[in-house]
Amino acid sequence: MLVSIDDERLIAGFTTKFGGVSSKEYESLNLATHVGDDPKKVSKNREILTSKISAKKLIFMEQIHSDLVYVVDDFNQKLPPCDGVITDIKGLALCVMVADCSPVLIYDKAQDKIAAIHAGRAGIVQKIISKSIEKMNSNPKNLSVIIGPNISKNCYEVKNLDLGEFNKFIKDSKFDMNLAIKYELEELGVDNYKFLNICSHCDDRFYSYRKSKVTGRFAGFIMLKG
Ligand SMILES: [Zn+2]
């Protein structure tokens, strides 16, 4: 686990492949049920994460590369498929699963509110980060944003794709996802952001869909303590 924030109010970070019970392509801490792994092992892996961060509950999204963002205000709420989730409930860990897409974690220190966002190419083009921040009703100056391991521009070839206003972040057929996210955050007025700058495709601690089609998913997690 890479822990980016762990203080009295908040824990936020990213899992790696290590420390779980899945085998073969999914070895070992695969947190996704939709990738062909044994569901019992995924449940066990999710239990391991729950206990490591002392969460009351983990929330996973059914991610669909959309711009849909929901607020969770009840512990037992069921989420429709979406790619962004917001809460102010303590002990509820918001999780985003990735293997090359960008896991984006947001903390609003003024409202004590958090968000987890799945921002791949499609999500970025649909402005899911802006839409999430808008839904949080946050003053951008109060936000801390962490962008976890994702595929770097050197490894992210996009041939003949039209990304609209984000085309300017394609150079030599390679899309610079982090630069696109940085641009969006700065446009919004967010200046407290941190990129881990770890390439999921190059770094063997992480799952990479581009590297191995059949693979697991690691997660970004964020939780208010208490
Ligand atoms: Zn790479």
TrEMBL record:
Pfam families: Cu-oxidase_4. This is Purine nucleoside phosphorylase. Gene3D superfamilies: CNF1/YfiH-like putative cysteine hydrolases. The lineage of its organism: Bacteria, Pseudomonadati, Campylobacterota, Epsilonproteobacteria, Campylobacterales. It comes from the Bacteria. InterPro entries: Cu_polyphenol_OxRdtase, Cu_polyphenol_OxRdtase_sf, Cytotoxic_necrot_fac-like_cat. It comes from Campylobacter vicugnae. The gene is pgeF. SUPFAM superfamilies: CNF1/YfiH-like putative cysteine hydrolases. Keywords: Hydrolase, Metal-binding, Transferase, Zinc. Belongs to the purine nucleoside phosphorylase YfiH/LACC1 family. It catalyses: adenosine + H2O + H(+) = inosine + NH4(+); inosine + phosphate = alpha-D-ribose 1-phosphate + hypoxanthine; S-methyl-5'-thioadenosine + phosphate = 5-(methylsulfanyl)-alpha-D-ribose 1-phosphate + adenine; adenosine + phosphate = alpha-D-ribose 1-phosphate + adenine.
